[in-house]
Specification:
Helix content: 40-55%
Structural class: alpha/beta
CATH class: Alpha Beta
Number of helices: 4
CATH superfamily: NAD(P)-binding Rossmann-like Domain
Order of helices and strands: EHEHEHEH
Distance between the termini: 12 Å
CATH architecture: 3-Layer(aba) Sandwich
Largest sheet: 4 strands, parallel
Radius of gyration: 15 Å
Number of domains: 1
Strand content: 5-15%
Shape: globular
Length: 127
């Protein structure tokens, strides 16, 4: 699973994972980009690819995603990030919360839920 797979390093991780012959599950908030990457991976690498639009700043969306996840075992690359450019003192009022939501709470929640799946599958300790 690659969280934050819609562009940049997340996309590169997804492509490399597929290049190595592993199936991949893509999650990010931009569905059109996820669809494009899914098509590319399926065309170029012939592995199974699933994707789902998930806003990783939204704890409820993360919980919902994992409650419906149909894969096991699971390994996670969390590459989502929110990093507005500019002076910190000049950020929009909502930016500090979003920074914490995506960069701190998101990886903690994803790791928590993925670890539960790993533990069920007997893969604890192999993150």
């Amino acid at each position: 699973m690659v969280a934050g797979a819609s562009e940049g390093l997340g996309e590169a991780f997804a492509l490399e994972i597929a290049h190595r012959g592993l199936n991949v599950y893509l999650i990010a908030r931009r569905e059109e980009k996820l669809k494009e990457l899914t098509d590319t991976i399926q065309r170029d690498h012939g592995v199974q690819v699933k994707y789902r639009k998930v806003d990783l700043s939204d704890a409820d969306q993360i919980k919902d995603f994992f409650s419906q996840l149909d894969i096991s075992p699971v390994r996670v690359v969390y590459n989502a990030a929110y990093a507005p450019v500019g002076w910190f003192t000049e950020l929009r009022a909502e930016d500090p919360e979003k920074i914490v939501a995506v960069n701190v709470r998101g990886p903690v929640l994803v790791t928590h839920f993925a670890s539960a799946i790993m533990k069920k599958g007997g893969t604890e300790g192999s993150c």
